[in-house]
Every structure is written in structure tokens, then in C-alpha cells.
Amino acid sequence: MEMKQVRNAMELLEGMLKGKKFFGGETVGFLDITFGWIAIWLDLRAIEEVAHVEFFNPVKYPLLEIRRTNSKSFMSSKIAFTYPKEKLVRFFKKYHRQCSLLK
Q1: Does residue 74 contact residue 28 with C-beta atoms inside 8 Å?
Q2: b/e per residue, 42-79, with b = 16+ CB within 10 A?
Q3: Which Gene3D superfamilies match (predicted)?
Q4: What is the CATH number of the domain that holds 88?
Q5: DSSP designation for 81
Q6: CA-wise closest residue to 43 among 74, 79, 80, 86
Q7: Euclidean distance between the first and final Cα of the chain, in Å?
Q8: What confidence tier does 99 reach under pLDDT thresholds 50, 70, 90?
Q9: Are 29 and 23 in contact (CB under 8 A)?
Q10: The Cα angle at residue 71 between residues 89 and 46, in degrees rounded to 5
Q11: In total, how many domains does the chain have?
Q12: Which of 2, 72, 83, 88 has a beta carbon 3.0–4.6 Å from 39's, enabling a disulfide?
């Protein structure tokens, strides 16, 4: 069920980018900024590696991949701190283990 919701959300976001430079059109909006931060702080590939699922397929969602890459590149140039994927994987694995112990 959750993966279907993720796929639906990804398809919705992909559709919102068709023919546009940004989610809202020609100017940066709230969703662009939010997506940019997710690209940096929650590296989607790190989450996929820990969860053993693929929900962000750059071939299936090419516009989101372009937006993710551009956002990450832009945000990284403006911010002095980004986390490498390996560090995020360690964090998410630790978080996942702790959540599993609570069940």
C-alpha cells in the first residue's frame, strides 16, 4: 500500500514538471525548495539502499531526476554542508534498527 502511494506521488510530481522549468512554472516556489532540500538531506538512493526498495527510478521519472540533479547542484553551491550517501546510509540503517527494536 505505501509503495503504491509513493509511486502515485512520484507520478503526480513528474506530471507537474511537464513543460515547466519549476514545479510552479517559471519561478521557484515552495515545492521546488522542499524538493531541493530532500535531494540533499534525504538522498533518495540512501533510503532505497536501507529499505531495499526502489521508488525513485530516474528512467521512469526523468523530469524529477533532472530537477533533483539541478536542485542538488544549486543547493550544494549555496550551502557548505552536504552529506555523502555513505554517511546517510549509516544514519538510516541505525534509525531503521532502532525503529525495529521499538516494535
Answers
A1: no
A2: ebbebbbbbeeeebbeeeebeebeebbeebbeebeeee
A3: 1.20.1050.10
A4: 1.20.1050.10
A5: -
A6: 86
A7: 20
A8: confident
A9: yes
A10: 10
A11: 1
A12: 72
Contacts of 89 (CB under 8 A, 6+ apart): 46, 49, 50
pLDDT at 46: 77
Tell me the pLDDT of the chain averaged across its residues: 79
| Whole-number CA gyration radius for the chain | 15
pLDDT digits (tens, 9 = 90+) for 50-96: 878 787 788 999 998 888 887 766 665 555 455 677 877 888 888 77
Is the pTM of the predicted complex or chain greater than 0.70?
A: no
For residue 55, give Cα distances in angstroms to 17, 64, 99.
18, 12, 21
